[in-house]
Amino acid sequence: MSAPPALCEQRTMTVDSKLYDVIMRVPIVSFTLFFLVREIVALRGMIAVRLYASSYWPLFFTVAARISVMMFLALLAVLHLLRLRPVRKYETWWPRITALLGLLTVYALVTVPTAESIAWWDGLSAMLLLVGNTLGILAVLDLGPSLSIMPEARQLVTTGCYRRVRHPLYLAEDIALLGIFLQFRSWPAAIVLTAHVLIQLRRMDWEEDILSRAFPEYADYQLHSYRLVPGFY
Known about the structure:
Blueprint: H1 5-50, H2 57-82, E1 88-89, H3 94-104, H4 119-143, E2 152-153, H5 168-181, H6 187-214, H7 218-223
Antiparallel strand pairs: 1-2
Helix pairs in contact: 1-2, 2-4, 3-6, 4-5, 5-6
């Protein structure tokens, strides 16, 4: 006895949706693994060059920051493979474009010349990177399979880092980006940093809108939490 046509169509749509979701994980996982390999190679080269440096504290923080970056990237790759399917997402492209711009804007810094290497600035940069990456790791662990680059509602997370702050992962990224900026210390780098922050703010708008549509309790969560900086914003 064959299944009703409507049921067959529903099953086909479900299979197609699952396949699409799996396929869409491939670019971000590949992108993340690419930069993970680059970080591993860069760390090996940096240790080989600076092993006999006279000042060890900048090297210590730089190595720790690099390791935290690798841990963060590895977590992103794993959690994107294990992430839940969205319960609600946008049909238009603007939210997705905003998310991609927020992800890629920082890489515009590769076109900007780096500043002169000074131990004090290098050490401060490494410390900010370490703090930002550590906070990012904690935020990603709290998100778990709800992690997403695109503004999509998967599961509402209001515990851990998300108990008082709605976007701790973006706060972590901005702290780390400030550390990267100190390696450039120029007006072009400041423009890239400002553009990234503005795009991220718009990205938060999209995410909060889709979460409030998917989860009625999100409105109450907004009233009892800060958007980005505890006690301030």
